[in-house]
Amino acid sequence: MTAPVPRPGIMDIAPYVGGESSLAGARRIVKLSSNEGALGPSAKAMAAYAAQVDKLHRYPDGNASALRAALAERWAVDPARIVCGAGSDEILGLLCRAYAGPGDEVIHTAHGFLMYAIAAKSCGATPVSVPENNLTADVDAILRAVTPRTRIVFLANPNNPTGTYLPTATLRRLRAGLRDDILLILDAAYAEFVTEKDYSAGIELVHEYENVVMTRTFSKVFALGGLRLGWGYCPLAIADVLHRSRNPFNVASPALAAGVAALEDVEHMERCLRQNQQGLAWVQQEAKNLGLEVTESVCNFSLMRFKSAEAAAQADAFLRENGIIVRAMKGYGLPERLRVTIGNDEENQIVMATLKDFLHR
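Below the sequence we write its predicted structure tokens.
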């Protein structure tokens, strides 16, 4: 007898590994490995989540009507174009399965989110990695990589793990250079953190073109990563496709309720953004003072470069010995770097003091 055989490409996938959360023997852990919200979720969001406890025997609203309405009001968008999912990862996967398959190519940048290649392989398509320019997406390189087989271009803007971004004018140049049958997916998971005036998450491009989708998440500034909640903003035809292909009731009731409350708690969001802006500036400057090279991040993390891959691995081990978890970047092709999430003030001070101890040993 023979066992079932998976479709070609599935066994080529290296499973995604998230940031670690535990260290054996550590009395206290400072987790700065997953770009989670430093101040935690809104108290109103937690209360809304808790209020669902006596309704767990009921199915959620399969249309996510209240959340879509809240998103539409918060960002001044059309609720009919919104598709909600179990994290923006689900939206990315749905788009790949709907618009790419065997024989097709899916473009992503060299240091982009690892899930792009996984999503492509899971539907039988071929991921195509494009070089970046100084850890920033290179529009010309992306356009040169386009072939008749290209069906999707993934672009994280701003990008994780580099923290860099492309301005709106450059995004428009990218869209102008793509065929109309190529889907441009703008992953704007970190959009809320960006303060630069030449940045746009891509909402206006979705309004103007039939082949642009923007995705967002509640896992970062809203600190609801444990609930797996995200959304996509799409042309109406693409929203229709996603609604046809997504699972029914794909977002749980507590997540829907917490998402609505988080959007309404503008004061908490603004407090989180102020804290991140101050913390990021301080951590980046402290890293420079220690002689580390850092990218100019617009997100809630700092990418720090050490003298060598060995030095980065040693720094990572030293941090772990002291109960601090950051993210090693070998899996992203950046073995000489560590990514450090911006935590609360105490966590930021702890990680930088520990790095100082390591470098001055």
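The chain has a mean pLDDT of 95.
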